[in-house]
Design a protein that fits this description.
Layout lengths: L7 H16 L4 H12 L3 H22 L1 H16 L3 H4 L5 H30 L3 H17 L12 H13 L7 H11 L4 H10 L1 H16 L9 H28 L5 H15 L2
Length: 276
């Protein structure tokens, strides 16, 4: 049974932190670990709160990419009831191709999640490890500065490789958006496709991970007094995630994401010094 006092201001702060950092390439999971360590919060209860705010993340993606997702759902039903439509519509139906690419991108993260999930969970209680990963994240973000605007379209090979980057981002302190966007830039994919694919591909992975964690924790493990904090956290995360997503896509298309490297390096160095 989790038993910890959780102030409403702290709930807002952690949810806002989650919302702002979830899509910006600076690792939301790493920030949550560092913030909760600084606040002296129990990381296990923090994990419950973190899961709920991730539900807000899912909601923001659905709202922002509603039109794309609507077409993908229609295509998914066509694929389900008429599998041959995948081959028949491959060249003309972008939603069909997008569905296949998302499914392929899920494989690496799904395998990693089911095989080493508990080891990764243990890393959430290790702010020193997270600090090292901030330095790693900053390094590959900075590397994107040296790559030109890509012109390649999405295909089976490059979407699977981007999926591998998403699997690496299961490590706390490694930014999911930073890892996937950077890998897509390294592969020379055009930025319009990167902006759509790297966020839509997050949906099934984040949803699956959230569901598994919720089943592990169990509804009875959360005290009733904590439920209002969870509701508050969900909506704060939903709203802040939406605007962070909107801002990042505009910034990425116009200037890139290498500027965030300096921030990640700063947080990493601070963490190594403070938690040593």
């Amino acid at each position: 049974m989790y038993n910890i006092e959780y102030d409403y201001l702290e709930s807002i702060f952690v949810a806002l932190l989650q919302g702002i950092t979830e899509f910006l390439p600076i690792s939301s999971s790493g920030h949550i670990v560092v913030a909760q360590s600084l606040l002296g919060q129990d990381l296990e209860l923090g994990m419950v709160f973190n899961i709920i705010t991730h539900a807000g993340t899912l909601g923001s993606i659905i709202i922002y990419f509603y039109k794309d997702l609507r077409e993908m759902v229609k295509s998914a039903f066509r694929m389900l009831f008429k599998p041959r439509s995948v081959i028949e519509n491959w060249d003309t139906d972008e939603a069909t191709r997008f569905n296949i690419y998302v499914l392929l991108s899920m494989i690496p993260a799904g395998v990693a999640g089911f095989t080493i999930r508990h080891q990764l969970d243990a890393a959430f209680a290790n702010p020193m490890g997270v600090s090292f990963m901030f330095l790693f994240t900053g390094t590959f973000l900075f590397a994107t500065k040296f790559f030109d605007q890509g012109r390649k379209k999405l295909n089976i090979k490059n979407t699977f490789i981007v999926g591998i980057a998403q699997a690496v981002s299961l490590i706390p302190g490694v930014s999911r958006s930073g890892a996937t966007i950077s890998m897509a830039v390294f592969l020379g994919i055009n930025r319009n496709d990167i902006a759509r694919f790297t966020f839509i591909m997050m949906l099934p992975v984040v949803a699956g991970a959230t569901l598994v964690e919720l089943l592990d924790i169990g509804a009875g493990s959360v005290e009733s007094a904590f439920i209002p904090h969870l509701i508050l956290g969900f909506f704060v995360s939903l709203i802040s995630c939406y605007f962070a997503l909107k801002y990042l896509i505009v910034l990425f298309k116009s200037k890139g994401i290498h500027y965030f490297a300096y921030y990640c390096w700063s947080i990493g160095i601070f963490g190594l010094i403070y938690f040593s």
